[in-house]
Amino acid sequence: MKDQPSPLRETDDDARKLARVLLRSARHAAIAVLAPETGFPFASRVLVATDIDGIPVILVSQLSAHTKALARDPRASLLTGEPGKGDPLAYPRLTTQCLAEPIEHSNPFYARIRARFLARHPKAKLYIDFPDFLFFRLKPEQASLNGGFGRAYQLDGNDLVIQSAANEEIAARATETVRDLVERHPDVEESLATRLKAPESGTWRICGVDSSGFDMISGDFLLRYEFETLAVDADHICSNISKIAYSIP
Q: Which of 18, 110, 132, 143 is the most buried (most CB within 10 A)?
């Protein structure tokens, strides 16, 4: 009996880029955990942001079932990727298997994660500081990308993490970087929205930067742009964004 051909394609740079965009452009996701009482998978919906290294971050109540499950067993799967019109299975989606790490208020990264989460989810300000809410960083271990019919790939967790020595420096200057860029080029966000063919949804603003790219938000829409190469510092990020906004197509 002949061996069946593998359904997986060889993972290339285009697949890695698509996977990163699917993960980093998600405002919400389905999360699956293991219920401690039964061991059965338990699925729920969570809001998602990313830390400076691209690792997804969720904010959850300690009273929720998925939070209690993660406290017992840190293994979780995160499903990202939005369907559109027609067959939902024709659209790309990414399942990322993660290990959850709680981020308490005493964690040195807490303030940074809080700021990045609020930049993407400003309405969370109503409850983000409630004592029963906490963050988890979901470190990718491996991932399965379905880019549409016949386009399946397996990825390593490191394919989804920003491996840059500049992460901490960029994180420390992220807010200042965006502020200075907009002050120098007041129309930069409008130009970016036009150049990147963003959906018509009112005013767009840059809500996050990192070594690998930047995020823009307008209402319920989020747009992620990945640089061709990693930025080495904040000035490099500004230069990359300016070229995208103002270069001749």
A: 143
